[in-house]
Amino acid sequence: MINLIPKLEYPILKKQDNIIYTKDGRAYSLYAMNPQVLKMNDAYGEDRFIKDLAEFINQIGLPTHYMVIPKSLDIKERHQKLKDSFNGEFADIGVKYIDRATEILDYELQDAVEYLFFIAIQLPKPKGTTEFVKSTKKAFSKFTSTLSKVVSLQEEKLDKDITHHYKHEEEQVYATIKGKLNCKKATTQEINYLEYRPFIRGQNKEVTSEATESIINVKKAGYIKLTQLDEESWCSVLPVVSLPIDMTYSKWVFALQQLPFPVEMHIRADYKNIEDDRSEVIRVKRKFKDQDSQIAEINEDEDSLVSEGRVILADLENQIKNEGQRLARTNISFVISDKTKEGLDEKIRDLKNFCKDSSIQIIQPLSDQLHLFHQCLIGSRIHLRDWEHPLSPEALAESLFGISQKVGNNIGFYLAKNLTDGSTVKTSLKPVFFHPQFGNQRIEGAKTRSLHFMVLGPTGMGKSFLVKNLWFYSTFLGTKILKIDPKNETESKLKEALKSFSKEEYSEFHEFVSKINFISLTHENKDKGKLDPLRFLTGIEAEDTAVTLLESLAKVQDTERQISNAITEAVQHVTRSETPGLLKVVEELKKNKNEIVREVGIQLEGFSKSALGGLLFSDGTSQSISLDKQVNIIQIQNLDLPKSEVDPKTYNRSQHLSVCTMIPLAKFTTKFLRNEVKGTLKLAIFEEAWALENTVQGTALIKEMLRTGRSLNCGCGIVTQSAKDYNEQDVKEQVGVRFAFRAEDPREQQDVLQFFDLPVNEENKAMLANLEEGQCLFRDIYGRTGIIGVDVLFNEWAKAFNTVAETNATEVSI
C-alpha cells in the first residue's frame, strides 16, 4: 500500500468481513445504507426519519464516519447485464437497440452519478493494558507480512482473541444501527470500492487495488493532482467552516445531491462525556453573555440570529442535563473532482455559491489538502480539528443523510428522467431505469410481488406514448404480449413511421414491425363472431360472460328479473349444443312466449346486424383468434368510444355498442393470461379501460384481470383515465407499478394521491395539476414515488409513438 507522507501512513492493515483493522490498533465496522425516498410533501414521514436518525446518532456514542459517495452509473455494465436476459424472437433486435442506447446515454449522462451512503463506526477496543494493544498491533503486522510464513501459537491465539472481540462488538453495533436505520453490512466489494476510489477521483478508470498506485501531487496550493499511467485528474477537499445557527429544515446532504456535478461528502463525528458537553454549552453561553454586554454598550438591538441561537442553546442545555443527550463533534468536508483544473475551479465556485445560499460557509485550504485527503480515507484519524462543529443529534439528522430521490430499478431499460427536483428532461442527470419483469421476484426491499402496472391520466398527456415504450422494451425479454387497441391506430402509426426511416439505415426497426401479429377485426365475413364469448370460452365462464354481454347490450335493469332469467335460460340451452353461438341465443329469445322477452331478442338481433355487432354474434362456426406469435395486437374497426366524462345514460346506439364490445375483449385478455406457456412471461395491455369502469360488470372484469395475472405471474397493463375505482386496498395491492399523468379535477387529484399512498395535501394537489405533457407521477416496486419525464431515445420510436396528428397549422404573433 501507499504511504502518503511519514505522518500520514496509509491506515488500513487488514479487512475481514465488514470490519477493517488499522495499523494503529483500531477497528471499524462498515455499513451500507439503503437510500430511502420520502413520500412527496410528507412532513410526518420526514420528521419520523429525522427522529430515527437522531436517536441513532445519540445512542451510538462511538466515533463515526458518515460518507456520501457519488458513483458513476456505468451504463455499459448495466446494459450488458440487461442484454444477458434477452430471449425470444426479438432478442437480436433488442441487442442492437440497447447498443444504440448505450452510445447515446454514455454521451448524455457522462456526468451522471448515483449516491451511495456508508457509515463506518470505530469499535470499542479490548479492555486491558497498553501492552495488550501493542501486542495486537504486532500480531496484525505478523499476520499480514509477506515475509512471515510462520506465526507463533501465542500470536495466533491472540489474533483470534482480537478478531473475536471485534466481531462481538460489531454485532452489538449492528443491532443498534439496524434498529434505527435501513442498512446492511457492507460487502467486500463495497469496502474495496471505498478504499480504492479516492485515488482515481475524477477519472474513468475501473476502481481496483491498482488505483492506489496513483501519484498524489499537492504542489499546487489548494489542489490535489492524481496521476495514473494513462490518466490524470484534479480534486480539492473543502471543509465546512460555519453552519447555520438553526439547522432545522436545512436538508443540506439531500440538497447537495441536486447539483449538476458530483459532490462527495464526509462527516466525521466524535463524542465526549456528558460533562464535557455541558462545559461546551456553558462556554457558548458565556460567549452570548459577552455579546450582550457589547450590545448594551453600543445601545443596539439584539440580532435576530443571536436571539434565535439563545433559544436553541437553552433547549440543548436542557436536553443534555435532563435527557442525557450527546453532542456530536463533527468535521464536515466536501470533495470535488474533475479531469481538468479549470473544470474543478468552475465546480468549486458553483458549490460555494450553493452553500452560501444555504448559510453554509466552506473554504479551500491552501496547505492542508493532503491532511484533508487522508482524513477522508476509511479508517483514518481526524488530523485537523480546526473546523469542528458541536451539533446536537437532531441538528445533524436534519441533513437528511440517507435520503435520495432515486426511483426505478438498478438494471433495466432507460425509461425517463427523474424530475422531482424541478429539472427538465434536457437538464436532468437522473435517469430512471425500469425492468418490467422484476415485480414478481423476491427482491430485497420490494413492496410488491406483482407484474401489473397501471397508467392514469387524461387524453393527450402521454399515456399511449409511455405504454408503447414499455411494451416495445418488454419484447426483448421474450415476453409474450397481447395488446388490445380500441383506437385502431397502432399498426397505422408504425407503418407510417416505416416510411420515414429507410430499411437500410434502420433495419432493426423494420424487422421489429415485421414480427408483430396485427389482428384487425373488421365487418368482413372472415371476422364475424370472433368476439363471441361462447366461441372462445367454455363452461360457466362462457355462460356468465354471454349473459353479462347480452344484458349490457339490452340495458336490462336489476328489477327486470324476468328478462334476465330468460336470457340466462337461453344461454344455458344454447351452450349444450355442439356449436354454440350468440345468434342461436337470439333465436331462442325471439321464440319466447313473453312478448317483452321477444322484443329484447329482436333488439339484440338488430345489434348483431351492425358492422361492429357482427364481431359479437356467431352462428357457431366462427374461428377463434390466433395468438401464435410473440407480439399480438388486436385492433377493432368501427369502435365509437365516448369520452370518459360522458354520462353513460346519454350514450347513443353506436357508443353503447362500442362500450359493450369491451366486455368480451376483457375476457379474451384474461384467457390469454391464463394460457400457460412454460417458462414464458406474458403481458396483456388493455387500453381505454375506463369504458369498462362505468359498469359494475366491467369493473369486476378489470379486477378479475388483475387477480388472474397475479396468480399466474403474468403482467397486466391497465390504461385508464381515473383512479376512482382502484382505491380499494385489495385492488391497490395487485398493482405493482403505477403511473399518473396530470390531474386537474380536485376529486381526481385526491383519488390519485390515495392510489399512490401519498399525503392528500395542497402541495401534492398542486404538483399533480402542474404536471406538463410527458411528465407523470411514478411509483416503483419499492414503493418509491417521484416525478418523471418520459424520454424515448430513438427517433423512429418517437415517430411511431406520437398519436397527435401532424398539421400545417402554425402559431403566429399578433
Give the structure's gist in a few sentences.
This protein has 814 residues and is of the alpha+beta class.
> How widely separated are the two ends?
72 Å
Query: Oligomer, anyone?
Result: single chain
User: What's the story with the biggest beta sheet?
Assistant: 13 strands, antiparallel
Q: Helical segment tally? A: 27
Radius of gyration: 33 Å
In terms of structural class, how would the helical and strand content be classed? alpha+beta
Question: Can you tell me the number of structural domains?
Answer: 3
Fraction of residues in H or I helices: 40-55%
* Rough outline: elongated
Number of strands: 24
Which consecutive residue ranges, at least 5 long each, have pLDDT under 50?
1-6, 142-158
DSSP strand (E) fraction? 15-25%
Q: Overall mean pLDDT score?
A: 88
Structural topology:
Layout: E1 12-16, E2 19-22, E3 27-33, H1 43-60, E4 64-72, H2 75-83, H3 91-108, E5 113-122, H4 130-144, H5 153-180, E6 183-185, H6 188-196, E7 215-217, E8 224-227, E9 232-242, H7 252-256, E10 264-270, H8 274-298, H9 304-323, E11 328-338, H10 341-357, E12 361-362, H11 369-375, E13 389-391, H12 393-397, E14 413-418, E15 431-434, E16 453-456, H13 463-475, E17 480-485, H14 490-500, H15 507-514, E18 517-521, H16 533-536, H17 539-554, H18 561-575, H19 582-590, H20 595-608, E19 631-636, H21 653-674, E20 682-686, H22 690-693, H23 696-711, E21 715-720, H24 729-732, E22 737-740, H25 746-755, H26 762-769, E23 775-779, E24 785-790, H27 795-801
